[in-house]
From TrEMBL:
Domain of life of the native organism: Eukaryota
Ranges annotated as biased composition (Basic and acidic residues): 35-50
Xref: InterPro entries: Znf_C2H2_type (IPR013087)
Keywords in alphabetical order: Metal-binding, Zinc, Zinc-finger
PROSITE patterns: ZINC_FINGER_C2H2_1, ZINC_FINGER_C2H2_2
GO MF term list: zinc ion binding
Start and end residues of each stretch annotated as Disordered: 35-55
Protein name: C2H2-type domain-containing protein
Amino acid sequence: MIEEDEEFEEQCEAAVSDIQATDIVCKDCGKKYKTRGGYERHRTSKHDDQQQSQMPLTPSVLTEIVNNAVNKVKESRVFAASLRNEFSAYRYVQLEEGTAEFSEMKVLYDSYLKSGNTEKFYGRFYSQVPLKSTSFFPGLSRNAATLLATKVADCMLVHCRHIKSPDGSVSPSKTMLSDKEKAGLQYLGGYVFAQSLQKVCKNVYK
């Protein structure tokens, strides 16, 4: 049993040595962050003005977002056939820049690019667009327009995140754990092993 304990400890040490934490690297300036929150705050304060000027919301960009949302509904078997048929026949009419509806969409879009706060984005979007969904998406029934509003929120979020990380992900950078972190994991591994050993011994000697 002691030999097994020593072997297990060696395996734990080897596993801990192989564990690496992943830093998030800013693609524009190379600064590293250990948490997503820190990275997004950095992007907001240092780089979002540049992003918004490079990728503003235009009527054509909004049309692309809406059409993506329409296709998601049409392709999903979750929704009733009658609803999917309504979307199949639907042709989105592009909003004109300067209209109240487009201005509301632009404010929501710009606010998320600036803050990166998903919860606030959804809260603001749902309090404005679904309530007036038939104004944003004329030609659809109330139920269909409201459903489309929720899907547009999702697609707009995906679009904004793609702007923040064009490759669809953040750049990884591997960093070895510190000795203190390794020691903590070793202690945890030893504790778990000790508890498991006690249970085994109780079962054997019952």
